[in-house]
From TrEMBL:
<dbReference type="InterPro" id="IPR036390">
    <property type="entry name" value="WH_DNA-bd_sf"/>
</dbReference>
<feature type="domain" description="HTH marR-type">
    <location>
        <begin position="31"/>
        <end position="77"/>
    </location>
</feature>
<dbReference type="Pfam" id="PF00480">
    <property type="entry name" value="ROK"/>
</dbReference>
<protein>
    <recommendedName>
        <fullName>HTH marR-type domain-containing protein</fullName>
    </recommendedName>
</protein>
<dbReference type="InterPro" id="IPR043129">
    <property type="entry name" value="ATPase_NBD"/>
</dbReference>
<dbReference type="InterPro" id="IPR000835">
    <property type="entry name" value="HTH_MarR-typ"/>
</dbReference>
<dbReference type="InterPro" id="IPR000600">
    <property type="entry name" value="ROK"/>
</dbReference>
<dbReference type="Pfam" id="PF12802">
    <property type="entry name" value="MarR_2"/>
</dbReference>
<dbReference type="InterPro" id="IPR036388">
    <property type="entry name" value="WH-like_DNA-bd_sf"/>
</dbReference>
<comment type="similarity">
    <text>Belongs to the ROK (NagC/XylR) family.</text>
</comment>
Amino acid sequence: MWSPSETPRPEQPTGRQPTVLMTAVKAGRVNQGRVLQALHDLGPLSRADLARLAGVSRATIGSIVQPLLERGLLAEGEPQRGATPGGKPARPLWFAPDSPPLAAVHLVPGWVEAALVSADGRILAAASGRFRVTAPAATVVDCVVDRLNAVLAGSAARALGVGIAVGGIVESTSGTIVACNLMPELSGLPLGPLVSERVDLPVHLDLHPRAQAIGDRWSGPGRGEQSFASIYIGEAIGAGLFLNGAIHCGPAGAGGEIGHTVVDVRGRTCRCGQRGCWETIATRDWLREEAARLRLPAAQAMTTALLAGLSAAGNADAKELFERYAHNLALGVVNLQQILAPGLFILHGDVIAGGEALRGRVERQARSQLPPRSAAEPQITFGSAHDRTTLLGAAGLVLSQSFPLVG
Ligand SMILES: [Zn+2]
């Protein structure tokens, strides 16, 4: 007698995954994510505009945006006469004024900032607080929850969720900080679930530079770009990658640890235990140690702005260190460009204070270390010095989890 279990099945080659197709539900959410991204990129758009941009019918766009209208995320604006000759007046779609807000947390060693963000990217409320970097994990969780409650209290509408951007190694699937060299008390902390339980909202935790890249794409120099790298350079170094229209993320949030790629096999020992990581020659600590070795003024408080000033004033040691810093920064940029060619590099953190003098040097150094390829020369740009890109990106984590751009 025949039984279904005897049906011959094609064998899977060992170690290979079968091709997985998206379910209709998932494909719908991906399309909704792309509509939201088009609105973030281009501003209010009618269904006809969206249909033209996507190369599909208005009916298809209608079925994609209807659930977003029903959930109160989008709303139709006033009819615009003349926008569609001969047809019905177009009604531009935009984020509803009373759409559910997004909550965001940016957690760095000793400091936390929380914000309530509208779906169109405006910061509606913010609260920040300090804690000792050696504080126990429970104190840090209390600090995060207190600041979140402070911003959530100001909203009549229930937030869609909370995005948390944090440095270190994270496991985004479980919302856990796996390891954090600069806040060791937080290593192994399931911060996402702990916060979720206390504020009664879904929480998405991810790597700080990845959230920063989402913020750059939403409202920074990455707006409208198809590929770029968003690099944080300060007390540590990390990168968020936006490649071919989507944020890159390895399994469970892996990837982006560019600070721990080796650039000098005989170099100093890094905090991670390896030798010669990029972090050992391009962080704030490295710059201050080198400034002290050269006996530069205010070495222990050296900043890129101060170094640029000393260099411009003709201090020969400062000039040499400034060039070497630019060279060391360019090394990481070159490695990333050689492997993935994101083309555009948006630098954040300490480097911004170095101004055009530093930006230009890093760009020239990077270009001189790469083979000539005029169509793919790396461009370096700096984020804004006082922006809240990462906080905004943390809010964007909520949208990107709810409406992913890739399946
Ligand atoms: Zn390292």
